[in-house]
Design a protein that fits this description.
By secondary structure, this protein is mainly beta. The chain contains five helices and 21 strands. Bound molecules: zinc ion (ZN). Zinc ion binds near residues 187, 204 and 206.
Length: about 300
Amino acid sequence: MMNPGGDRVPYMRSRLDLLAIMAVVLLTSVFPVDILPSGPHELHGTDGQLSGKQGHVLLVTVPDDGRSTDAVGRFLGRQIPFYKDSSGYVGLLGIDLQDTPGTHELAIEMRSPDGPRRLSYNVLVIKEPYPVQHLTLPRDKVDLDEASLVRVKAEQEQVQSVLDMVSRERLWHGSFLEPVQGTITAAFGRVRIINGQPRSPHNGEDIAAPLGADVVAMNDGVARLAVDHFFSGKGVFVDHGLGFYSMYFHLAEILVQEGEPVKRGQVIGKVGDSGRATGPHLHWGVRLNGARVNPYSLLTLFPDSTATTKR
Ligand SMILES: [Zn+2]
């Protein structure tokens, strides 16, 4: 959900900085844990421990033992379905931007005709010092009237009911696209404290771009929701399968229908300032099995140059 008070563009950070702070971990074997010495992966923490910052995505690969037919992970109460590819069973572990820093268990159940096998890993969640903004605003600019409150609550429930659904097939493949060319504002994770009251952290990235610019889908999927909501304005929710959703808000125009399959790079809308927005920009968000993560984390995990060799 958007923050009441609208989106602004106060923080500028280069794309390189953003990419540099994203942790990438590739787990290549189970006991003991080996980490690939080369490639775009980096490990923080001690041997055998996965780690990543709040709001980032970890790529977890368990080698195929030749017997398992399925694998599912559990982390902080969230289910992470794994998919199979040439490297084994692969899971995208999203660390929610508000997951508690510290070490938590990632439990993976490998299912096979011989019965389940349980694997356990430690995942160190590292605090990301997201910016905090204190604002004082007139109350009538902040408080919603009764009708708006009712509307916002209904919209939140509508969104949650869609995000709670997990499509069993992986619909995405290869690398991911930035949905619009523009200025990344590093607004992900920012917390606003308005008149002393902390609001929900900003759960997407804002990209400032000209009104009417094309917005494309970051990967293949199905448009599950096409809405016009109080805070987020005209928005599209794309289901990429296995509990992975991408969101595109404040559009001027929506160019897909609910239920319609979309392809990576397909234009799904136009940049606008609908909903609570102070100027034209795209709010781009990703939900991974319930975790609010920075969409740029996925661009780092699956870089374009290696897309053909990795997948
Ligand atoms: Zn935003």
